Amino acid sequence: MIEHAAFPTIRPRRLRRNALLRQMVRETTLSPADFIYPLFVRYGSGIQQPIRSMPGQSQWTVDKLADEVREIAALGIPAVILFGIPEHKDAHGSDNTDPGGIVPTAIRAIKEAAPDLIVISDMCFCEYTDHGHCGIINLPSDRHYTAHLPEGYLLNDPTLDLLARASVVHAEAGADIIAPSGMIDGMVGAIRAGLDASGFEHVIIMSYAAKYASAFYGPFRDAAESPPSFGDRSEYQMDPANKREAMKEVALDVAEGADMLMVKPAMPYLDVLAEVRRHFNLPTAAYQVSGEYAMIHAAAANGWLDLQRAALESLMGIKRAGADLILTYFAKDAARWLAG
Ligand code: PBG
Known about the structure:
Elements: H1 19-24, E1 35-42, E2 48-50, E3 58-61, H2 65-74, E4 79-85, H3 102-113, E5 118-123, H4 156-173, E6 177-180, H5 187-197, E7 204-211, H6 218-223, H7 244-255, E8 260-264, H8 270-279, E9 284-288, H9 290-301, H10 307-320, E10 325-328, H11 331-339
Parallel strand pairs: 1-3, 1-4, 1-10, 4-5, 5-6, 6-7, 7-8, 8-9, 9-10
Antiparallel strand pairs: 2-3
Helix pairs in contact: 2-3, 3-4, 4-5
């Protein structure tokens, strides 16, 4: 056993004695500039529809967005990421490839209201398809039906064409960053080729490079009204058990031309985030997903956690683990809390 008296001068507590000292030796800092705020835009007009499972978050119609995005920009948050709730869904999610679709319309409105705010378009089809899967499903009724592939299988390459087309439509509307989130093989390469062929070489791709099939997306599926009508997303999203595979997924996206990376969810995957940060020299974001947000809110509503402290601690943990950017529903609150 070590005799404490033998090390009389070793006292780490000295550096924690008061708030100013703790601030002097603080290794990680949080700032509104770290945050990306997710926004749900829906069809209709005059509606700000609160999302029951995500206290403080709403679905917005496009006409209600202007004040909201000006407020976000004024808080020092540099970017929003958009999710659409279209009026009509169909097998190919055609709202997403339509220049008059919900997200392209919202992008134009945001760029008009807050021209400097960076607009990220979540690029996936699950919010737009009637079956709720992230691309074209192999069904006998579909013109892409491929008899030798299993029924219900997500058709990879036809989905790539749609992703590239939708990305060009969103870039034309003014999106600064396209963020493919479907874990479709080759999605980054297909989108890069599509953007470049249409003159959008300056549009950035932020890939949801390591996205897990997670229970923590539960509240989002309410918010975006996009649960799969059959099966789940485990055939394309990653198995929570795998970290080496995440490194393979990230390496592929880097090779295909991703400009920024993302790990999702955040808190249960901080080891993956740290590993990605260590091995790849690209800006790396982490997505603190709907379930992480809802969980902290639910505990706080019961008086079991202090909302502000728990939320800021969760964000600090994500930053400390290596995130350059954090997608978080706490962005606005945290920006206010950090401003004191
Ligand atoms: C769509 C998408 C999802 C989320 C972001 N983009 C849902 C899913 O993959 O099932 C989840 C975000 C959240 O839970 O906050 N592909």
